[in-house]
Task: structure prediction
Amino acid sequence: MEIITKEELSKYNGQGAPSYVAYKDTVYDVSSSFLWKAGRHQVLHNAGEDMTENMHDAPHGDNMLERFPVVGILASDGG
Amino acid sequence: MAKVTREMVEKNGINVEQLVELLVKNASAELTTFYYYTILRLNLIGLEGEGIKEIAETARIEDRNHFEALVPRIYELDGKLPGHMNDFHDISACPPAALPGDPTDITAMLTVLVEAERCAVRGYTHICNMTAGKDHRTYDLSQSILNEEIQHESWFSEFLGEGPSGHFMRRGETSPFVSKFLK
Result:
């Protein structure tokens, strides 16, 4: 599995690039989601970022991410 | 625009630009769902489909009511709807509730319906969380819509055999919670 640094993750922000998000050190490709169009999700969240902390306030569980392919592991030091 | 209304919401710590964008996206979800539900309802035929048609129609009309109720709040807060329908469709807070490939597959039809309602339940829960104790009018509106979306979810969920919810189909007027915003 590819190791992705935080800096590399930030480039996958959905702006001319795929939309990746990290959650608990796993990186998901959410590009296929209608709800992540152009790398934005429900106004408040942007692709290319670690969503681990945001999940606490989300009106859904982390099982939502099971719908998307895993593309890597977030570097443990955050890059 | 209702100037002091917006000021009060801002003063209570709400990012009004974000809130308005969320309201517009959810208004889009309501109107587009009204459109897609029209097609779904038309295709709910046969022994199984006819049994679902009535609640699909009620949910369709109530989603249109939600759109109607949301629009004044958007403009009160100095927001506006996109000038073009295509743009409005594409910013929806929920994916299109498109007709399944096989409309005679009732489970597939119900799955589209229940997923649309679940998206709405999440969306209004989010707005309620954001506005609770800070923007009383948007909270009241969102909570009213949420009450109806929860009932819609329950109706379709029961048909999928996910367990009882204690709800029954509407008797009398539609939108028992939201109608106060439509008067």
In short: The longest strand of chain A covers residues 70-74. The CA atoms of residues 1 and 54 of chain A lie 24 Å apart. Chain A has a mean pLDDT of 93.
